[in-house]
Amino acid sequence: MSSKSHPEIKVGILGATGTVGQRFIQLLANHPYFKIHALGASSRSAGQQYSKITKWKLNTTIPEFVQKMVVQECKPDAEGFADCGVVFSGLDADVAGDIEEAFRSANLIVYSNAKSYRRDPLCPLIVPLVNPSHLDIIPHQRSSLSLSKGYIVTNANCSTTGLVVPLAALEKAFGPLETVMVTTLQAISGAGYPGVSSLDILDNVVPHIGGEEEKIEWETNKILGGLKSSNKEFDLHATEQTKPINVSATCTRVPVIDGHTGVVSVKFTQNPPPSIEQIDKAFREFTCEAQDLGVPSAPAQAIVVHDAPDRPQPRLDRDLHNGACVSVGRIRDCPVFDVKFVCLIDNVRLGAATSSIMNAEIAVEKGYIQ
Known about the structure:
- The protein is an alpha/beta fold and 370 residues long.
- It folds into two domains: 162 residues, NAD(P)-binding Rossmann-like Domain (Rossmann fold); 189 residues, Dihydrodipicolinate Reductase, domain 2, CATH 3.30.360.10.
- It contains twelve helices and twelve strands.
- The strands form two sheets. Strands 3-2-1-4-5-6 form a six-stranded parallel β-sheet, sandwiched between helices. It has a six-stranded mixed β-sheet with strand order 8-7-9-12-11-10.
- Helix 1 crosses helix 12 and helix 6 runs parallel beside helix 8.
- The longest helix is centred in the last third of the chain and has 18 residues.
- It starts with 8 loop residues before the first strand and ends with a helix.
- The model has no long low-confidence stretch (mean pLDDT 96).
């Protein structure tokens, strides 16, 4: 934990009544310096107390001070938002784009969980345990849009996040990767509320999640790539030293409440490839900038390696380090590629709200939020 103290920073939450919005509230309720100041939701919820219009689905109660807060429309001129040092967006993708752009245009800072700006060449796509250096494109985003303060930062798709953390550990230790194949087993909470029909998911595996495979296959290279020397362009993992990683994803929905599992096979460009013992060591020793900075939401371990042959498991391992780490297990030789393993992420914490919060905490340390 950082020993630094920060002045209070008021925050807003867009989509506050939804699944991700509820997680934002739960995680921010006792934050050392981010203080919930404004809540935004649909026009039909605006003007009412939060507790009266929210179907709270978490295993903790709504924080007492939040219960009586009056929900506003998701507009930058709605009461409270203008005072916020950062606005967290848990909005559904179908409405997020225009709303987040309106907030940015009003010179407000938006940290988004939605997909709308992940492919935008001005917006960083950040997994906080992997690539916070991409925040350095913020001055270019501001200047390109003639903004003095406002900008948008996005976090990744929840399954992409669980995949790229162990991949980053492998690239850090052994150089560029050539090919990655992943099959995901994704929890129903990833579909929001009310989500997947019980008749579709009980006693079943659904071998398709619309748009999910394309997100993983594209996002991985933006995240694991770098910024060009001008800090004005992402290299998408294509440089003189690296080629884009070939990524193939198959995404399935399984009857698990929280926790996305990934079954991963990797081929290295290094030949011969590292040994299983070296790979295991690289996972265990992986550290990241969020830990170096000591931000409040950073896990003590970025990757937890499990030795038991039947781990990780969602029900047993998703809560490790308050859901802010990635679990890895079953590290073994792959007869087709080089190595295969199983990874697990808490999709609603590190895969969603925790990532946005940790990204913002890192931005505070780097001076991009004041």
